[in-house]
Amino acid sequence: MNASIKPYSLTTSTAVKRINLKLLSPKLSLEETKQFATDFGKAMVGIQPSSFEIHIDASSFQVVSKDLVSTLEDALKVYKQTGFKKVTVNCGDSVVLGSQVLRLARSIQLNQLSTITKGVEKSAKLM
């Protein structure tokens, strides 16, 4: 990716208590990962995550390759540790991606996660 263009967009809306994260690339370089960590930390300043939702738009992805599964799991762990009220991942039309995200969320007990695939929302929380 071009150094001046970030592979993600991160915005905070305090009015609706929501953080919006749009992923433009499934893989970040080490430098991009460090920049994301900095930007994410700045987004957390002055908010109470337990009253905020984070909406992650991964609709441009089809599937998470084997080499990126642990990266996705680590990211989900961060969202769990942060303590968001709700984590929503828009998987676009990819049923496979939605299943992967739900499986990983359940494996780390991120019960406040849900996916949206083909307009249908599914919760990671097992009833």
> What is the N-to-C succession of helices and strands?
EEHEHEHEE
What's the rounded overall pLDDT mean? 90
Rg over CA atoms: 14 Å
Cα(first) to Cα(last) distance is 41 Å
The geometry reads as globular
Helix content: 25-40%
How would you classify the helix and strand content by structural class? alpha/beta
Tell me the number of helical segments per DSSP (H or I, 4 or more residues long).
Answer: 3
Q: Could you name the ranges where pLDDT drops below 50 across 5 or more consecutive residues?
A: none
Major β-sheet strand ordering = 1-2-3-4-5-6
Major sheet: 6 strands, mixed
Per DSSP E runs of 2 or more residues, the count of β-strands stands at 6
Q: Can you give a write-up of this model?
A:
The protein is built from three helices and six strands; from the N terminus they run ββαβαβαββ. The protein is globular. It has a six-stranded mixed beta sheet, covered by helices on one side. The chain starts with 7 loop residues before the first strand and ends with a strand. It has helices spanning 30-44, 69-82, 95-107, and strands spanning 8-13, 18-23, 53-57, 86-90, 113-117, 120-123. It is of the alpha/beta class and 127 residues long. Strand 5 and strand 6 (120-123) form a beta hairpin. 33% of the residues lie in helices and 24% in strands.
